[in-house]
Write a structure and sequence with these properties.
The chain is 73% helix and 3% strand. By secondary structure, it is mainly alpha-helical. The radius of gyration is 26 Å and the shape is globular.
Length: 308
């Protein structure tokens, strides 16, 4: 009996680790191993001897930090980063502002057809990014867009949204259209979790719906706002689908418009996997540091407010 009980106890202790094995294997094969391989490539380079012809003319050698130095001094990577930062300054506040506004409106007692409205706002998020970019890309083209036809009939100016400064607005519109619904659902879920007694007490004190929204609802969903801001920043730094999809439609989008586009160009267009790996590592580290710094600042602020 004792030996049986010991075996059962030993098996019960090992069971959680057995359930973790499939996830651990998938994590190692499709996440940890590619990251490790990218790090390995980033510290190496291809050395070409002579004309680069014949066996042994091209061999992989240790490069140290050379690829990282070249990436940090690359003007194309810097300009792509600045473009993405400008794009993010438009997308993040507009998208989160609309998500918060829609969530507050749906949480109102006077709202009608709330389930249908939630679905309508969330539906664009379910559309793949490439499909959404193609859809809006053709709507931006003067020759096929119904918007330009209406503007022409009304005698109004027809701006070229795929050229110059308006390109930022065109790209931002795609991201806002697709991402607002997801952020709205996150914020709306937090609003629905607030106890009804809080609202009843505020109404008894004479608070108006606007005051309740500004002084109760928004402060209480601050963690959700931090979370959505965090996700939005990461998505902005990883911008790739929209400009890549719109590139065949305009000459204003280069192959290095965003940092990830430059990584893709260097890796698969020019065949320089080592330089591309170094750039990818730099982007990943920058994203990690930015995210960690923001979360740390947000946690510090929450602790200060809680101490008050």
């Amino acid at each position: 009996m004792k030996s049986t009980a010991r075996r059962q106890s030993y098996g019960a202790k090992r069971a959680p680790y057995a359930f973790l094995i499939p996830a651990t294997i998938l994590f190692a094969l499709f996440f940890a191993l590619p990251i490790g391989y990218a790090l390995w490539l980033s510290f190496r380079k291809v050395k070409v001897s002579g004309l680069g012809l014949g066996s042994g003319a091209r061999k992989e050698v240790w490069a140290g930090l050379e690829n990282y130095t070249d990436a940090l001094t690359d003007s194309e990577l810097l300009h792509g980063t600045l473009r993405v930062l400008g794009y993010g300054c438009i997308v993040v506040p507009v998208m989160l502002g609309l998500a918060l506004l829609f969530a507050l409106m749906l949480d109102s007692e006077k709202v009608r057809l709330a389930p249908f409205t939630r679905l309508a706002i969330f539906l664009p998020y379910a559309i793949p990014g490439v499909v959404a970019a193609l859809l809006w890309g053709f709507l931006y083209l003067p020759d096929v867009s119904p918007f330009y036809f209406v503007l022409d009939r009304l005698g109004l100016p027809q701006p070229d949204l795929l050229d110059g400064g308006p390109l930022y607005l065109a790209l931002s519109n795609i991201a806002v259209w697709g991402g607002t619904g997801f952020n709205m659902i996150v914020i709306y879920t937090s609003l629905r979790a607030i106890p009804a007694e809080v609202y009843e007490a505020a109404k008894l004190d004479g608070a108006t719906p606007t005051q309740i929204a500004l002084r109760i609802k928004i402060p209480m969903v601050a963690p959700s706002l931090v979370l959505t801001f965090f996700f939005s920043v990461i998505a902005t730094l990883q911008m790739f689908n929209e400009p890549t999809t719109l590139k065949p439609l305009t000459n204003s989008v280069s192959t290095t418009w965003s940092p990830l586009m430059k990584v893709y160009r260097d890796a698969f267009g020019e065949g320089d996997l080592h330089s591309a790996a170094a750039q990818a590592v730099i982007i990943a580290v920058a994203t990690l540091l930015l995210s960690f710094g923001f979360l740390r600042a947000a946690n510090r602020r929450q602790k200060q407010e809680a101490a008050r």
